[in-house]
Specification:
single chain; alpha+beta; eight-stranded mixed beta sheet; six-stranded antiparallel beta sheet; 5 helices; about 15% helix; about 30% strand
């Protein structure tokens, strides 16, 4: 605000009157000394000057008015009208007649429309019948004290129940549930990597022992992992409330089972899975297998070794296609001129032959080695060393 009158200048310092004179004042017929008058005139001049200087420092308060609007263009008329141009620091209080729908402007007494901004420089927002205090910075008006200013983006569900926070419509009470004590999970699931996902209640929980624990029930764990069941857990072992019933087998017990299977003629190992061992048990023959047939002796000779250490040659009977390893084999020509017997227990082949030339029966014992063999698919055993056995028909009998 400008002053019209100039401050009278008086510079003579003078002398301050005594306190007694200040108290009694001027009396009739007093003739004040010039020094006293100079002191009074100089002090009065300096005091008026100081008042004008201090008044210039005061923020210009424009007053209060109710707006009119054309869309987001607001206007107000003040009386007295503010000086032009509006000084920086000019303050005004207005009541809004209608809510804004975009960036508002304010025109005071047709001085010119000025933007109305929040503290952060973004456009302000007016509510109908709201009262706002604005300060002009030389370019724009700024809302004061949070009036329509920055109130954040939080809503009632974002703030703890019972707590308040400022919003554009005033204080808002939070509605977020405050969870205390041990809480129950609302559900569970399993992540793709096998980790457990737990769904807590919606709300705020402080966390920590006793006031932040989430309880997951055995049923919820099983819902996330169906394999968590008594049948998949070792017997008498309890995991999260599930008592296992699955029978366990020690390594020594498994080795004993493998040895027993092997002893029944089916090779088994402790490294076999339980399923493999079960299949091998099914391969055990309860009854010994046997086979028989008829075949002709070879027409060519095979080198052999007799159990007495001598060597020689024989015609042989060869049989293939067995599905077991014989423990006992009998070979006969049907007329009992040739009868042979093999037993795995003696590991040799004993043969009795009636020689046609002198009708004498001769016993021959052979090692099962070299050209002679007994295996899981057949055998080759002597028909005899004499020429009449070449190509002769033989009956054979093999027993497991």
């Amino acid at each position: 605000m400008a002053f019209d009158k100039q401050v009278p200048t008086w510079s003579a310092p003078g002398v301050e009157p005594p306190e007694s004179k200040k108290q009694e004042g001027w009396q009739v017929n007093d003739k004040p000394p010039a020094a006293w008058l100079n002191w009074f005139m100089t002090l009065s001049s300096e005091s008026i000057k100081e008042l004008q200087e201090k008044a210039a420092e005061k923020i210009d308060i424009g007053g209060y008015g109710v707006t009119s609007n054309n869309g987001n263009a607001y206007a107000v008329t003040l009386n007295p009208a503010p000086t032009e141009p509006l000084p920086a620091g000019y303050r005004i209080t207005i009541k809004i007649n209608a809510a804004s729908t975009g960036a508002p402007t304010l025109n005071i007494n047709n001085i010119g429309a000025k933007p109305v901004l929040k503290a952060n420089g973004s456009a302000a927002s007016f509510k109908a019948n709201g009262v706002y205090t604005l300060v002009y910075d030389g370019t724009s008006f700024f809302l004061q004290g949070g009036e329509g200013g920055e109130v954040g983006t939080a809503t009632a569900p974002d703030v703890l129940q019972g707590k308040t926070f400022p919003g554009e419509d005033g204080l808002i009470v939070g509605t977020m549930p405050h969870l205390t004590g041990i809480r129950n999970a609302t559900g569970t699931a399993k992540w793709g990597d096998g980790a457990l996902a737990v769904y807590p209640e919606k709300g705020y929980q402080k966390g920590g022992v006793g006031d932040g624990e989430i309880k997951v029930s055995p049923a919820q764990l099983q819902a996330a992992e169906g394999a968590l069941s008594p049948g998949n857990l070792p017997k008498d072992v309890s995991i999260f409330g599930f008592l296992g019933v699955l029978e366990r087998m020690t390594t020594a017990e498994k080795q004993a089972i493998a040895n027993a299977i092997t002893g029944k003629g089916v090779a088994a190992s402790v490294n076999d899975t339980n399923t493999v061992l079960a299949n091998k048990i099914g391969q055990i023959r309860i009854s010994p297998r046997k086979a028989s047939g008829q075949t002709n002796a070879s027409n060519s000779l095979y080198g052999i070794t007799f159990t007495n250490g001598n060597t020689g040659t024989v015609y042989a009977v060869t049989v293939n296609g067995l599905d077991f390893t014989p423990r006992v084999i009998i070979i006969s020509d049907g007329g009992y001129r040739v009868l042979g017997y093999y037993s795995v227990d003696i590991g040799a082949f004993t043969q009795k032959i009636r020689r046609m030339s002198d009708d004498i029966t001769e016993t021959l014992d052979y090692f099962i080695s070299g050209n002679l063999y007994v295996n899981s698919s057949g055998f080759r055993l002597p028909a005899g060393p004499f020429s009449y056995t070449a190509g002769m028909s033989f009956n054979w009998y093999a027993y497991e």
